[in-house]
Amino acid sequence: MASSRVVLTPVGASAIVGSLATLLLGFVTLNLLLLVLPVLVLGVVCVELLAFDRSTRGFGPERFRWKRLENSSEVGIDAVGSMALDIELAGPRSFYAEVFDPQPESFEVVGGAPRLVTYWRPGTPTRLAYVYRPRERGRFRVGPTMVVAHDPFGFAFRMTMLENRWEVLVTPAISVEEAMDFPLVGGRAPAEAYRRRVGPGSEFRSLREYEESDDARKIAWRKSGIDKLYVRQHEEEAHPEVLVMIDCGRDMRLGEPGSECLELAVDGGTVVAGQAIGRSDRVSLMVHADQVVEFVPPQRGPPGADALTEAFGRIGLVPRPFDLARALETATEKLGVPTTIVLFSTLLSPFGAVEAAVSRLRDRGHRLIVLCPEVAALFPAEPDPLAAAAMLFASEPDVRSIDRAVDRLRAQGVPVVRYPPTEVREFASEAHAWLHAQESPL
Amino acid sequence: MNDRPWLAALIYPAPLYVSILAVVQWWGGSVPLLVGFALALGFGLLTAVGVVHHPAVVAGGRVLLSFLAVLPIALVTEFGGASVDLAVGVILGAPFVWLEYAWRADASPGTRVLTLELTFLLGVLTIATGSVGAGTTSGSPGEQFVSALANVLSAQVQGIAALITGGVATSMPLGSALNVWYVGLAAVAVAGSLCPVFLPQTGLGEPLPWSWGATSTPTDSDDALLAERLALRPGQREALASRTLPAAPSGVTAPGFTSVIIGGVLAAAFVVLAVGAPAITLSVLAFGTVAAVLAVAMVLSRRLAAPGEGDADRPGTAEAQLEEPGPGGPAPGGVSGAPTVGSRAETSPLRAAGSASGPVARRTEP
C-alpha cells in the first residue's frame, strides 16, 4: 500500500486552524501586531507542509530496497527467534522516517528493537534487528514493515508498507529422552530388547507359503504364482508404534486463554512423542476434527522429532465437531502395523458408531488409550459462592456428556485417563510409561 | 507543566508590562481595582506553576473571576463603583488566567497562538483605552475605564462598518494602538511560546533525533552482552550488533529551519507592506491567505496512486527487488525482499534428560 497523500496530524491541523482564527481577530482589529502573529505562524506551517510534500514526492514501496535476513522461520516456544531487515532508501531526498516491523502480541521482544526513528539519507542502508521470545504456539506472521515519513515539526506524515511478510512457526518443545534412562524391559536393557524375529512389524524379513489364517494384505502378489501364494514375514519390533491423535474440533477451545484443552493436548502429545522417540519407537501424529486435518506418518529419531515438532506447531482449532468414530476408522486405514493410539480429546462431541470403530481397531491389533481433561477443573475456582454455583450449573451439561462418553469407551475396554489440566505432562508421561510396560515383546 | 520554564519566563513580561501601565493609569487610589488585579494575577500564576491544580478548583476559580469581571460591568447601574473597580482590576489581570496555555508542554500550536493573540488583544485594548481616555472625570476609576473602553469599541465598530460598506474609516483606535516596548516584549513572548513547537518532533510529540553539529554514529553496547546471554548464532549476533540506531541529521541548523526563516521573511514583508502601502495590505493578506490555504489543501488531497491500486498487487520494480523469495519464508504474494538464511527453530540449550517438563533439546540449522 502506498501512502496516497500527505496526512495532516492534529498538531498540524491545530496550527492551521489556530492561525486562521487569530487572523480573523486581526482582521477585526486591523492591528499590525495582531496580524503579524498569524501571518508568521500560517506562513511557517504552509511553507513546511509544501516543503514536506516536495521532499517526499513519490514516497512508496518503490523508493526502498529491502531484504530480510537471519529471520527465524521456526522457533520453539519460549526459545529465542531473530528478525533482521535491511532497508535502503532509493530516493533523492532525506527525511525523518520511522520504520516499524509489526509482530504478534505473543512475541516478547527481548533484544534490539522492531522500531526505529531516524533521519534517513538516500543510499544509507538501515538495519532493523531484534530478537524475540514467542509465548504462544502456532503459526504467526511478522510484517509488513511500515515506513512513516515525518514532517520535522510533526505537522504531517506519509506512510507506506513494504510487502515483506514473514511467517514464523512457533513449535512446542519435544523432550527427547535418552533411551538409556529408562529401566530394563523384562529384565533386559532396551537395546537388547530389540530382537529380530518374526512377528508384527514393519521391516521385511522373508517370504513363506500362505496359510489360511494369514492376513490377505500380506500376500506378496509379485512373488506368488497361480498355484502357490506367498506372504511377507516381518520382523517383530520391541519398540511399538505410537500414534498421537489430537482432537482439534471446536470443543477443544474450552479452558482459559493460553491453556485451552487444545494446548493441553499439544503439551501432552509432545511428551508422549518425545518419550517415544527417545526410546527409538516410531511415532506418528494425526490431527482430526470431523475429518483428518493433518497426518504425519511414523517418524523416528531426530529427523522425526523435527517433523513432529513442526506438525505440533501447526495444530490449530477447527470450527467443527470431532468425529471419534471416523477418526478411529481413518487411523485403522492408515496404520500398517499394530499401533498404540493415544488420543487427546475432551470427548464432548457426540459419538457416532464408536463401538464398531473400536472393535475394528482391535481386530487389526491396535490399542487405544484416551486422555481427557477434567472439564470442571479447567477454570479457576470462583471465590464468590454465587459465581461458583453459576459456573457449576453452566458446566454441568458438559460434565455429564463427558461422563457418558467415558463410560461408553470404558465399557468397550478402552482405558480413559482423566487428568487435571495442570498435570497433563505428568499424566501423559505416566500413560506412555504404562503403555511401554504393556508392550513388552516377551 | 513545561519542561522548559525559562521559555515561560519570556512570555509573561509583555502582558505584565501593559497591565501595570494600565493599573498605574487607572487605579486612582481605588483599592478594589488593585484587589481585582491581584486576584486575577495571583490565581493565574498559582495555576500556571501548579500550586493550584485540582481541575474543579481551577475551573471554579476561572468561572468566579469571569463573573467578577462581567457582571458588575453588565449591570453597572445596579452594582456601582467599587464592584466595577474590582471587575476592571480582574479584566486587567485576565490574561494571566489563561496565559499558561501559551507555554504548557501539552498545549498545541493552535492553542498557543490563540492564547497569545487573545493576550495581545487585551493588551491592545488596554493601550487603546488609555490613549482614548474616559472623556469624563466623574465616577470611580473603574467606571471611567469602562467608559473609555466603550468609546474605543464603539469607534472600532464604526470604522469596520465604514470599511465594509466601502467608506473611509475615520477612526480605528485598535488599529493604531501600538507601544514600541509592548511590541518588543510581544515578539519575545512569541519566541518563547512557539520555540518548542518548531523543534524536531513527531505528531505525537515524540522528539526526533537532532543535535547541533555532526555526531558520531551511536552504538548500543548492550546488544553484544545480550547476544551472548541468549546464545545467538554468529549471523544473528552480527545482525543485532550492526543494527541501526537513531541518527540525527548532520548540520548546524535544525530540520525545518528553512521554513521558519521563510515564515519570518513573509511576516517581515507583510510589516513592510503594511507600513509602506497600507491601502493594499489587507487585500494582499486576504489573497495570500486564500492561496496558501488552497495550496495546502491541494497537497493534502493529492494522491500518488488512485484508490485501490495497492502496491501489493504489483511486483516490485527491478530496483526494489533484490532476490526472489526463498522457500517457506514470505507469505504468498509478497513483493521481493529475499530472505537469506531462514533459520530453523532457535532453541534453548539441551536440558537434562528425564525431565518431563524440560523443553527443547533440538539441534539448530547451520
Explain what this protein looks like in three dimensions.
The complex is a heterodimer of chains A (442) and B (366). Chain A has 3 domains: 1-171, Immunoglobulins (Immunoglobulin-like); 196-235, no CATH class; 238-438, Rossmann fold, CATH 3.40.50. Chain A has 9 helices and 21 strands. Chain A has helices at 10-29, 32-55, 190-193, 261-278, 301-314, 324-334, 354-363, 385-411, 424-438; strands at 7-8, 64-69, 71-72, 74-76, 81-89, 95-100, 107-112, 115-120, 125-134, 138-142, 145-150, 156-162, 166-171, 198-209, 230-235, 241-247, 282-288, 292-299, 339-344, 367-373, 416-419. In chain A, the strands form 5 sheets. A 6-stranded mixed sheet of chain A has the order 18-17-16-19-20-21, with helices on both faces. A 5-stranded antiparallel sheet of chain A has the order 1-12-11-6-8. In chain B, 38% of the residues are buried. Among the domains of chain B are: 5-194, no CATH class; 256-301. The model of chain B is unreliable at 305-366 (pLDDT under 50). The interface between A and B is large, with 132 and 129 residues. Strand 3 (71-72) of chain A pairs parallel with strand 1 of chain B, so a sheet runs across the interface.
Give helix % range of chain B.
Answer: 55-70%
Number of strands of chain B: 1
**Largest chain interface and its two residue counts?**
A-B, 132 and 129 residues
**Envelope shape of chain A:** elongated
The count of β-strands of chain A is 21
Identify the CATH architecture of the largest domain in chain A. 3-Layer(aba) Sandwich
Q: What is the H/E order of chain B?
A: HHHHHHHHHHHHHHE
* Fraction in beta strands of chain A: 25-35%
